[in-house]
Amino acid sequence: MIRVLHFVSIPAVWSGVMNAIMNYYRQMDPTKIQFDFLCFLSCQTQEESYEKEILSLGGSITYIKKLGLKNAFSSLRQLDTFFRTKAKQYDWLQNHEVYLSFLLKPMAAKYGLKHFIVHCHATKYSDRSLAAFRNHLLCLPIRWMHCKRFACSTDAASFLYGRKCMKEQPVFIMRNAIAMERYHFCPEKRTELRRQYQLNNCFVLGHIGRLERQKNHSFLLDVFALLHQKDPRTRLLLVGDGSLMQLLKNKAKTLEIADAVLFLGARNDVPDLLQAMDLYLLPSLFEGVGISLLEAQANGLECLASEFVPKEAAISSHVHFLPLPSTGSESKHEIQIWADKVLTIKNSTQPLRNLDVVQAMEQSPYNIDNAVEELLQQYQQYQY
């Protein structure tokens, strides 16, 4: 049996990285492969975690203190102890916190875990300037590191490894594949949810993602405010939690759309919530691939995405890429473009769900049934 240790920051259900890993984990043959997790801290006391599911699938999860100026010594000591006692249990260390590769690879190799994977999930180091600069410096050694290179998309691969490095050593694109059947359209569930949230006779826009700057919720609220002026029956579902929650709620009040915006928080019933939507929007400032966009397509939804979302996430012509305002510029023009596109789709005679998209998704590499075997083959190859 192959045993893989995944290093991730936090095992929360809202984490896109954890969501991607768990989609694969659920489909793996437990007689061939097993996943364990090493995380910075437990999130059970604050938010819902994947811990119980990991344990039920036969895996384990270990927590260490988060690296920081105040507890760097104790955190490093915990890491060293973990690898000293458990490194030889694993065939691979798959690191999803790429900026720590310079530290984790030699520490694991010291105790016998020599097969190392760097897995890139984004096309930026951070949405905060200082953190981005720090992470950029810490990631520089990766281009010369003796390891296996993974990425969630070709854009993410090019960002972290560079095109020259990609030519010298192929990068495995471990797509953020999903279990399609979980997201199939269900009219009965749609009726139930729209009744529950009082959405009958409403045109419902939806978005799923952490309430952080990367996801660009402020721009989304501006677009929705313009739409709501033209049609008070429009509604916006925001699924996710984050540090900008209160700021965004305050903006919704300022724009006089608070009664039409539903802040649903972090949820584990995303497949159900998609049923209630009529159109999905992803105005992100950057994305590794945009897994929520794939989930929306698997439900058959028409989608609008920013031009910064990788194009390979569009499985059909029902995903429309639109511009965002450049840094420091006025956004009225782009807000109008997004609003006009929403109205065009709303006023069209297209069906409630696009079944051709669902069929395309099932045949695509983003179908977890197609992706699992490719990943297993990568774990079975120990050559870099």
Distance between the termini: 20 Å
Major sheet size, sense and barrel closure: 7 strands, parallel
Strand content: 15-25%
Topology order in helix (H) and strand (E) letters: EHEHEHEHEHEHHEHEHEHEHEHEEHHH
* Individual helix count: 15
Helical fraction: 25-40%
Low-confidence stretches: none
Oligomer type: single chain
Number of strands: 13
Give me the Rg, rounded: 21 Å
Mean pLDDT: 92
Given the helix and strand composition, which structural class is it? alpha/beta
How are the strands of the largest sheet arranged? 3-2-1-4-5-6-7
Description of the structure:
- This protein is an alpha/beta fold and 384 residues long.
- Helix content is 40%, strand content 16%.
- It has helices at residues 16-27, 51-56, 72-86, 101-110, 129-139, 154-161, 163-168, 187-196, 217-230, 245-254, 270-275, 291-298, 332-346, 355-363, 368-380; strands at residues 2-8, 33-39, 61-63, 92-95, 116-120, 148-151, 172-173, 203-208, 234-239, 261-265, 279-282, 302-306, 319-322.
- Strands 3-2-1-4-5-6-7 form a seven-stranded parallel β-sheet, sandwiched between helices. The protein has a six-stranded parallel β-sheet with strand order 10-9-8-11-12-13, with helices on both faces.
- Helix 4 links the parallel strand 4 (92-95) and strand 5.
- Helix 9 crosses helix 13.
- It is globular, with a radius of gyration of 21 Å.
